[in-house]
């Protein structure tokens, strides 16, 4: 990969990351009628969309042949259970990180994330010291866990001949499982009451799509 393409991918990644954080922050503080969307379900939907995106890319690499796609998925995932299980650890950490990001952006004030608003002062006063501490701890934990998971995942990619798309399908599969467990444990009652997609709107789907696009730019840099 040329250096220019890497720099371009890096620039896109920075833009998408910034857009994701600001959009996610706004979506978690926007006051609307009815229940707010559940961050745990948004994490699961993002993982499922990542799997779909990677399957499409594998399909493209397989010369748009469904038979070839089925063979690749069977040979590289189902027939290599130990290789697939290696992704359980980083997947669990990434799932935790994604949930912590929502926690952080729901608790930290706008000024902390440099969110432009005319009501920054009043917003800061409304948030208790306790909630800001929770948000800060969530950010710190997410940063450290992300670093470890990133190094671990890169190590796996360098030690294997499997494509990065296959690895991300494996990663997303475990992420979906862990994410659904989180939904059941923490938000099961709310899901039963108001549904899995409670509080979803256009802004919520923008946040989810930005998370999926974030994956592709990150891989281009690698």
UniProtKB/TrEMBL annotation:
- One family from Pfam that matches here is Nuc_sug_transp
UniProt keywords, alphabetically: Membrane, Sugar transport, Transmembrane, Transmembrane helix, Transport
Q: Name one GO molecular function term.
A: pyrimidine nucleotide-sugar transmembrane transporter activity
Membrane topology qualifier? Multi-pass membrane protein
Primary location group: membrane
Query: What's any one GO cellular component for it?
Result: Golgi membrane
Q: Where in the cell is it found?
A: Membrane
Residue stretches spanning the membrane = 7-26, 38-59, 133-153, 165-186
Q: What InterPro entries is this protein classified in?
A: Nuc_sug_transpt
The protein depicted here goes by the name Solute carrier family 35 member A3
Q: What is the lineage of its organism?
A: Eukaryota, Metazoa, Chordata, Craniata, Vertebrata
Gene name of the record: SLC35A3
